[in-house]
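Before we proceed, please read the two lines closing this message. Let me know whether the structure tokens fit the sequence:

…
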Amino acid sequence: MEPIYITGAGVASAIGIGKEETLAALQTGRSGIRPIRYLSSSHTDLPVGEVQLSNEDMVALLGLGDSKSYTRSALIGKLALKEALMDARLLGEPFDEVHFISGTTVGGMDRREQIHAQEPGCGREIAEIATHNCASCTELIAEGFGDFASMATVSTACSSATNAIITGANMLRCGLADIVVVGGTECLSLFHLNGFNALMILDHQPCRPFDRDRAGLNLGEGAAFLVMETADSARQRGLMPRFVLSGYANTCDAFHQTASSPEGDGAFLAMNAALNAAGLKPSDIQYINAHGTGTPNNDESESRAIKRVFGEHYPPVSSTKSFTGHTTSASGSIEAVFCLLALEHQFIPQNLNWSTPMEQGILPVTEQVENPRIEHILTNAFGFGGNDSSLIISKVKE
């Protein structure tokens, strides 16, 4: 099959705005999980991974002025999209053949909550509420960059951004597009934080993925987008791509509304299918960027799934959610960018805060691996309802 080239990427999360800041944090082990600063919540005891900018800061950074109310998800998304377009040499170019697909679940809920807390006005709040659904979030992100050939929104909980990437890849494979911009965005909201708190899966300390004493996840926010295109498109634009989306898969075991199956059936099927799509063997993978939320259920289930696919001699594994918190719908694309950085700079991100092995769990990477040889990375994103997706990102063979 024709390769799917990755020709640009942009990211914004708790560990930095842009790939340069992100790389520095990953290589030095600097986490972005902190006390709540920007979300107005009574749950000040819950650490989170917030983007360290106010909405006003982002409006100024993007040069938007203050004439329009942007949701936080859209502003974070705009930061990531701008970098991705610049990286792929698309910023300022016509977008009549470029398609945009973004994943989100919370969308503009943060702005909706602000309006709900205000006194009723003169109908202004009704007009604003109409822009806070997930699809409107995608439109707000795209606004000002150009007229995309098409736009679509994917909302499958924590696998949303990964499924946006898969949707774009399928469009390229089917000849429906030559260039796609794909990924996701998510901001923190009270709906978000309180909902996960009600599930009793939030840790009151920095999360400890794959640790015996893990107590849950930390929520985060962020966005990331990838530019992917066909070989003909990259050639016509004079690009020499370094990365390729070599395999991908989405499965759904529908085991439970929020829990993963005990044996990791959906995760097992997704990883196997991605390997088959890439034409690779388990031994060809040099690093696994795990979903690794830090919840008792996920880490046990994912450990079993990894061992079912790779055996006891699995490749190095880490969860970068110990850096950013769980950015839910955006996590798949944010972690895909982390994988691109790992491939480009040949390093394996640490699994922070780990100290004690789980019974029959995987042993994650907890310090820098010296001079790894990485050609293929598998990255997982698992959503509620058992909607599980895996990607394999590879270096282009020279």
